[in-house]
Specification:
Blueprint: E1 9-12, E2 18-21, E3 28-33, H1 40-48, E4 58-60, E5 66-68, E6 74-76, H2 82-87, E7 88-93, H3 105-121, E8 126-128, H4 133-138, E9 145-148, H5 161-165, H6 168-179, H7 214-226, H8 229-243, H9 252-258, H10 262-271, H11 292-305, H12 312-326, H13 328-336, H14 340-352, H15 359-376, H16 380-397, E10 403-407, E11 412-415, E12 424-428, E13 431-439, E14 448-451, E15 457-459, E16 463-465
Parallel strand pairs: 1-5, 3-7, 3-9, 4-7, 8-9
Antiparallel strand pairs: 2-6, 4-5, 10-13, 10-16, 11-12, 13-14, 14-15
Helix pairs in contact: 3-6, 7-8, 8-13, 8-14, 8-15, 14-15
């Protein structure tokens, strides 16, 4: 049995409380509630005390940070069941201190992301929530299945609390969709980007089922590893120039030359119908990998994960693998730089290495990076607040005469309330819609707009006022 640990880990303090190497392969995940809004450090300290006599493989703290306390190869002491812990990855999640022991949104989202990562590294394509204790414990999953279990089945405890217990089915569906690249309605998920370099400046990305734009997903992934906003922004500016942050992007000149779409090319590579992926010299993916050896490494990495060559999460992990193993100097610059331009130039000349490295190109890529910096680190909060306040004022002033917005992206969710913490109704097609109310809410820096149809709310981040 081969085991690995999650690259999502941001803090490590290994507990002495475990039983050594597992005697069973990993085919279960058991989420727990901590019963307290802990930090990764405080949970690690607790698990290290000689008096505790308990541990978990991972913990997710109140800010969504992942701690590693028992390596996945070892059996933790977490579920009051040796048999369960031998085959389960156990995850303690920060929660409220009383029933229903609710998780913060950031904790729940990180739990889903960590489950996806655990499944992928263990070769699983489906996460199951059967719900019934006896049926679950007697079920023998097939090699591509992972099963959710809960602590309350093995002890007189509420764990993981009613809040999480009521969402176990939703968690299983969410993770399975992500593992297979599907949207909530079962169709293939896509990210929005312009078809031509000249169009990228006005590109918008959809608020997908994670509740986050693709840009924010990439930003948070890199920030967790780099910890320097200048470094992350400089790197993202280069990715944006290369692919528009679209993970299934085929180099535009080849798309036109061959008369094939990004999705069609990706499907043919995935299905094995196109055998020239390694040698066709066409740039592909977030970083527009072109040289045969790098494309071969990407292809093999995707195959090991059992995911599409265009999978966003896989490509981010591959980028990080490339950077740490082959470009440590670039990583060092990203971590220590004090300007976006410094990182942008380093990534351009030492990682991406396009044919055109002129001052015009350097300046443009740095400008892209500055936009990401301002969006997520600079004056983003103040700008977003002003934008929300302006929109709210406009809506209040025009309540008797509603205004129009144009939805600019595919796969924008209609939600039951003003925020990503509300349920999804369906996708709204691009077009012009009447808005009758605007409110602030989680997941949109420009606020949420209520549709005149009464069907629900949409994020104004992806709309243009008519």
């Amino acid at each position: 049995m081969n085991f690995s640990n999650s690259t999502l880990t941001e803090y490590t303090r290994l507990s002495p409380h475990h039983s050594g190497l597992r005697t069973h392969g990993i085919d279960r995940i058991t989420p727990h509630c901590v019963v307290g809004q802990c930090t990764a450090e405080s949970l690690g300290e607790w698990f290290s005390k000689s008096s505790t006599k308990a541990s978990s493989n991972y913990g997710i703290d109140r800010n969504g940070r992942v701690g590693l306390y028992v390596e996945e190869k070892n059996r933790s002491w977490c579920s009051s069941s040796a048999a369960n812990d031998q085959r389960a990855v156990t995850i303690e999640c920060a929660s409220d201190g009383k029933e229903p022991y609710a998780f913060r949104d950031v904790v729940y989202e990180k739990l889903a992301t960590l489950c996806v990562d655990i499944c992928r590294r263990n070769g699983k394509r489906k996460l199951l929530w059967i719900g019934d204790r006896e049926r679950t414990l007697s079920y023998e999953p097939n090699p591509e299945e992972m099963v959710l279990t809960v602590h309350r089945w093995f002890a007189k405890k509420s764990c993981p609390g009613e809040w999480m217990y009521s969402r176990m089915g939703e968690l299983a569906e969410k993770v399975t969709r992500e593992l297979n690249g599907l949207t909530k309605d079962g169709s293939m998920a896509t990210e929005v980007s312009a078809d031509r370099e000249s169009d990228r400046e006005s590109r918008a990305s959809a608020e997908v089922d994670t509740g986050k734009p693709v840009e924010r997903m990439i930003w948070e992934y890199l920030m967790a590893r780099i910890g320097n906003a200048f470094g992350v922004a400089g790197f993202m500016g280069n990715l944006y120039a290369e692919s528009g942050l679209r993970s299934n992007n085929l180099q535009n000149s080849y798309e036109k030359k061959w008369g094939i779409t990004d999705a069609e090319y990706t499907k043919r590579v995935d299905d094995g119908a196109y055998a020239e992926f390694l040698m066709d010299r066409a740039g592909y993916g977030l970083a527009q990998w072109t040289y045969w050896s790098r494309k071969k490494a990407l292809w093999e990495f995707a195959k090991v994960r059992g995911v599409s060559i265009g999978d966003l999460s896989m490509q981010l992990d591959f980028i990080w693998k490339e950077l740490t193993e082959r470009y440590p100097g670039v990583v060092a610059t990203m971590k220590c730089a004090s300007t976006v331009r410094e990182v942008s130039d380093a990534v351009l000349t030492r990682y991406e290495k396009p044919a055109d490295q002129s001052e015009r190109v350097r300046k443009l890529r740095a400008e892209y990076g500055e936009r990401f910096y301002n969006m997520y680190q600079g004056n983003a909060d103040e700008t977003a607040l002003k934008g929300i306040q302006n929109l709210v004022s406009q809506a209040d002033a025009s309540e008797a005469t509603p205004f129009l917005v144009k939805v600019m992206v595919q796969h924008l969710n209609i939600r039951t309330g003003p925020g990503t913490n509300f349920g999804r109704v369906r996708f709204i097609p691009p077009g012009v819609y009447t808005i009758v109310e605007v409110k602030e809410g989680v997941g949109s820096k420009y606020g949420w707009a209520r549709l005149k149809s009464g069907e629900g709310w949409i994020s104004l981040e992806f709309c243009q006022r008519e």
